[in-house]
Amino acid sequence: MHAHQQDFIAVIPEALDPAACAAIIERFEASGQEAPGRVGGGHFPDLKRSSDIAISGRAGWSDVEQMLNQAVFHGLKQYLRTYPFALIAPVMLQYTPAGGSARRIVYEDLESMDDATLSHLLMTVFRPGRINLQRYRAGEGGYPYWHCELYPKDGQAETLHRHLLWTLYLNDDFQAGQTEFFHQRRSIAPRTGSLLIAPAAFTHTHRGNRPQGGDKYIATSWVLFQPAAKLYGSG
Fold first, then answer.
1. Residues 203 and 96 in one domain
2. Residue 144 falls inside a structural domain
3. Cα-flanking dihedrals φ and ψ of residue 157, to 5°?
């Protein structure tokens, strides 16, 4: 794909089975674990009004975390075949093609690269972020503040390691509630089981519009770079 219309926003339909989505919502409601949703600076309901459960590493959620990460991993491979520079521009990767000798990876390699090699490269460069399950109440919930996902927050620069954002829509039995991207002038309508992937930086500033007539449920996180020590060695 070399079209000028590329906006780096990918929507992958049916990334997760509708029955699995429904089961996650059911478990969310039964758990009683939700807490008021936070933004980078803390709890500001005027910026974001949601109920969240951080499931990563939390007892009783590991199967859901694994299922979501697998769906995202699969979608990410599709994304990288469309946008190879997301993988190869930030770090100078080498690989050894069959019967050849080691060399730097170029753009064209990713079009023909087999799935196992791409998976290996992906895991070398990236790691999954902590997953949040979120509920936005009909007529009141939302994240109306225009924001991006890349900002300096912590000593480990964890939030600066965010490369891509993802959202997996768990239901669509409501109106409105789109994910709206400012510069691309694009609104993504939630569809049960579909996966949204986009860059984390200011170019893809976005907001989550208020659902009407029903509550909106999503799973969301980031694709992060591996820490420097893992990518480049401690030397």
1. no
2. yes
3. 60, 30
Residue 146's closest CA among 220, 206, 208, 189? Answer: 206
Give the CATH number for residue 27: 2.60.120.620
Q: Is 86 helix (H, G, I), strand (E, B) or coil?
A: helix
Range of the domain at 196: 10-82+128-226
pTM for this model (two decimals): 0.95
What tokens appear for 65 in the block? Answer: 């975390």
Please count the other Cβ atoms lying within 10 Å of the Cβ belonging to residue 227: 13
DSSP assignment of 113-165: --HHHHHHHHHHHEEE---EEEEE-TTT-BEEEEE-S----STT-GGGGEEEE
Is 48 in the same domain as 150? yes
- Asked if residues 208 and 49 have their Cβ atoms less than 8 Å apart, the reply is no
Q: What is the pLDDT of residues 61-83, one digit of tens each?
A: 999 999 999 999 999 999 999 99
Q: β-strands 132-136, 51-54: how paired?
A: antiparallel
Q: Are residues 160 and 203 in the same domain?
A: yes
Alpha carbon distance 231, 212 (integer Å): 45
Q: What is the pLDDT of residues 119-172, one digit of tens each?
A: 999 999 999 999 999 999 999 999 999 999 999 988 889 999 999 999 999 999
